[in-house]
Design goal:
Strand 7 and strand 8 form a beta hairpin. Helix content is 45%, strand content 19%. The chain is α+β, with helices and mostly antiparallel strands and 539 residues long. The chain has three domains: 160 residues, Arc Repressor Mutant, subunit A (Orthogonal Bundle), CATH 1.10.10.10; 191 residues, Beta-Lactamase (2-Layer Sandwich); 156 residues, 2-Layer Sandwich (Beta-Lactamase), CATH 3.30.450.40. The protein starts with 13 loop residues before the first helix and ends in a 10-residue tail after the last helix. The structure holds P-hydroxybenzoic acid. P-hydroxybenzoic acid binds next to helix 6, strand 8 and strand 9.
Length: 539
């Protein structure tokens, strides 16, 4: 989607332009079905020249933020680093987590918390009840203010600039580009854009009188919601708490009667927790592996490497601290020069992704969640691992799998087979006894049962396990661990080959390095994806 600039009078320059292009590509992909697009469609969506788009995507692919698949490009899980940084820094989702969960339990209805984001409303916390008729949005989703309950709360605080942006947007509402900015919006909301826009001023006035805002099927037929503001010290509303139900259980009025007292008590609790946000400020620790990776990417791509894009994203990803980072902390965290970090921060501020507070601390803004957080935060482990397994299979021409321990068995959780027939057909979900398999040995070696420990200690020391026709004649395999963000073995990954096609030496010398490199890539994606999504873990 086109990246609107804020109007701050900072000098334009190369970092802004390059970063803006990269963020426009990521934003367009994030709004596309399955977070993937053909290159030609990306050219149309972003307005970039084909050659420019190719340089942008090459840099983003090399950094692991995008994946190239034939003529399509797809967002990659590593991009979650950016949304994770925002949510780690965000005081609201932290302060609201426990009270919102308690409210959802007490009411047995879905509860959500959102923050103002320009002329939209961005969800930062969801405590859903699992029901057939429960349409709720996801963390990171944004709705137009005129289409949801909290919009009438936040619009009361808008400045002239935001009203101007809103008026322009609703004027263009029939234009498909205006809709592209709201991928979560149902295709056919109950009201027309014009009707919804016309009612907003009235809804703001009613909310100012009553201290609550109602969504009576504004965004989706059947969906009703009641929202109350959380009051900040400056009198503005830093966030709002909503309870969401369905017309099969409640009318807007009955939901208000049922929930309002407890909803208000919850908002008060959140407001107090925000006022005393007790999280301690920890200086970020530099990660030399990241600066190394950046340097290698630059060497490898040469003139094609868009340095200001890479650095801008690196700076954005480092802003994870609750109270924001100072310039020198951001320089320490990224290993970049202060002047470089400063240029990146100014570009990010100008593009609306970062704010400066107290004149010296920099924090990410909710708009960062627009960069793929929603589709990527819902990936399963199989979806994360599969493209990496497919790359591996393409290089080694043998089948690759990932499995987890399940009692005394292993269970396959991801697999990509070659077309070569090797006598065993092992789909996802297949269970095999752990002890005679290479993956089983890697998994058992992490926490060895006493009777096996001498043998498995060797597997653990070497970091891989080999089996030679132990499970099935003619089948050899080699496996390595896949570790989670804490360094624990989360799964095992193997390559299995026909004994007639591969010697044990070839498995050790040719396959093992590829297997290890693939494990490293899956681990990086898994670390980003599992920070807030337990379903990203193999299980
Ligand atoms: C939601 O949390 O899904 C939600 C909240 C407020 C609305 C609509 C939906 O007005």
């Amino acid at each position: 989607m086109p990246v609107a600039e804020t109007t701050s009078p900072k000098p334009a320059g190369e970092p802004v332009t390059t970063l803006k292009r990269g963020l426009a590509v990521l934003g367009a992909l994030a709004a596309a079905p399955s977070a993937r697009m053909r290159r030609g469609d990306l050219v149309r969506a972003t307005g970039l020249a084909r050659a420019t788009l190719d340089r942008v995507t090459r840099t983003l692919v090399r950094l692991g933020y995008l994946r190239a698949e034939e003529n399509e490009v797809v967002l990659a899980p590593r991009l979650l680093e950016l949304g994770n940084a925002y949510l780690a820094a965000d005081p609201v989702s932290h302060a609201a987590a426990a009270p919102a969960r308690a409210l959802a339990d007490a009411l047995d209805e879905s509860v959500s918390v959102c923050v103002p984001d320009g002329d939209g409303v961005r969800f930062v916390l969801q405590c859903p009840r699992r029901r057939a008729m429960a349409v709720t949005f996801h963390v990171g989703d944004v709705l137009p203010a005129e289409r949801c309950a909290p919009g009438a709360i936040f619009a009361a605080d808008w400045d002239e600039d935001t009203w101007r942006i809103w008026r322009e947007r609703v004027k263009e509402a029939e234009d498909s580009r205006a809709w592209a900015a709201y991928p979560a919006l149902p295709a056919a909301p109950p009201q027309t854009a014009e009707e919804a826009a016309r009612e907003l001023p009235d809804r703001i006035a009613r909310t100012a009188g009553s201290g609550l805002a109602v969504d009576d099927q504004l965004v989706e037929s059947g969906l009703v919601a009641v929202a109350v503001p959380v009051r900040g010290r400056d009198g503005r509303s830093p966030c709002a708490v909503s309870v969401v139900s369905h017309t099969s259980r409640h009318t807007a009025d009955s939901l208000t009667g049922y929930a309002l007292d407890r909803l208000r008590a919850c908002a008060d609790t959140v407001g107090r927790a925000l006022a005393e946000d007790g999280r301690t400020h920890e200086r970020p620790v530099p990660d030399p592996a990241r600066s190394d990776a950046l340097r290698r990417a630059k060497e490898e791509l040469g003139a094609d490497f868009l340095q200001s894009l890479a650095r801008g994203l690196e700076v954005l990803a480092c802003l994870r601290a609750p109270a924001g980072l100072t310039l020198s902390e951001a320089a320490d965290a990224t290993g970049l020069a202060r002047a470089t970090v400063r240029r990146s921060l100014l570009a990010l501020i100008r593009l609306g992704y970062v704010a400066e507070s107290d004149g010296r601390r920099f924090s990410p803004l909710p708009r960062v969640l627009e960069l793929g957080y929603v589709p990527l935060s819902r990936l399963t482990f199989e979806q994360i691992a599969r493209p990496h397994l497919a790359d591996l299979v393409e290089r080694v021409h043998d089948s690759a799998s990932v499995s987890v321990l399940d009692g005394e068995h292993i269970r396959y959780v991801a697999r990509v087979a070659t077309t070569r027939i090797i006598g065993v057909d092992l789909g996802v979900g297949t269970r095999l006894p752990a002890a005679p398999t290479s993956m089983g040995r890697v998994l058992l070696a992490e926490d060895p049962p006493p009777e096996l420990s001498a043998h498995l200690a060797e597997v653990r020391r070497r970091g891989y396990a080999l089996t030679d026709q132990e499970l099935e004649e003619g089948l050899r395999s080699i496996a390595v661990p896949v570790r989670d963000r804490d360094g624990r073995v989360a799964a095992a990954m193997n390559v299995a080959a026909h004994a007639a096609h591969r010697s044990l030496d070839s498995l050790r010398e040719e396959v093992l390095p590829e297997l290890r490199e693939t494990a490293r890539r899956i681990e990086a994606d898994l670390a980003a994806a599992s920070e807030r999504n337990p379903n990203a873990r193999p299980r």
